Amino acid sequence: MAEKKKITYYLGTGRRKTAVARVRLLEGKGQIKINERDLNDYFTEEKDRGAVMGPLNITDQAKSVDVIIRVTGGGITGQADAIKQGLARAIKTMFSPRAEQKVITRNHVTMIRGYKAEVKGIVVAAPKPAAAPLSSEAGAPPVMVVPEDPATGMIKKLRDSGFLTRDSRMKERKKYGLRGARRGTQFSKR
Questions:
Q1: Rounded distance, CA 69 to CA 122, Å?
Q2: Cα separation, 75 vs 67, whole angstroms
Q3: Domains and CATH numbers, the chain
Q4: DSSP letters spanning 93-115
Q5: Tens-of-pLDDT digits for all 190 residues of the chain?
Q6: How far is it, in rounded angstroms, from Cα 18 to Cα 32?
């Protein structure tokens, strides 16, 4: 009997308005499947396809990972923005240190989720690399240079581009005595 190939998924969840996207990232050739349909079949507008591809393009991962997405709720643009955040979180998990990952293994499938261990309000993180002092000019205080890890650079790109931040705008609820959230009834003089 043939051995099953081990598969590693990196998980991320994104939300926008009422849309929720569950994203699985794995090593591959750049295929994107949304609810078992191709990206171009699911999103017909270019702006929505661009929103989905944004995190992959900024981290240069578009041709090196396969993406499987399950998205529910909301409209087309809300789903695209939920997928964008979920993809960014999955890429962040892929490049984060082991201390910030929660690993679940079942049979031949390994799923890795972003996770930070918290102990009584104290966040436990990986140790930072030692800084190398630079020679400074006479009279000036010494300047410390910390060598940059490529994974930290990827996460910084995602954070600076706004892909990891949740857009909290939601539809406002209807109020009693009004026709909508703020609109009242038309004024009648008589």
A1: 33
A2: 21
A3: 7-131+145-161 (3.30.230.10)
A4: HHHS-GGGEEEEEETTEEEEEE-
A5: 567 788 999 999 999 999 999 999 999 999 999 999 999 999 999 999 999 999 999 999 999 999 999 999 999 999 999 999 999 999 999 988 888 889 999 988 999 898 865 445 555 555 555 555 555 555 656 555 555 666 778 889 999 999 999 999 999 999 999 999 999 999 999 8
A6: 22
User: Tokens 């000036």 appear where?
Assistant: 140
The two structure tokens encoding residue 167: 């857009």
The answer to pTM > 0.70 is yes
Distance CA 27, CA 31 (A): 10
Closest CA to 100 of 157, 31, 152, 44: 152
Residue given tokens 């609109």 in the structure block? 183
64 near 94, Cβ under 8 Å?
Answer: no
The residue assigned the tokens 């794995």 is 26
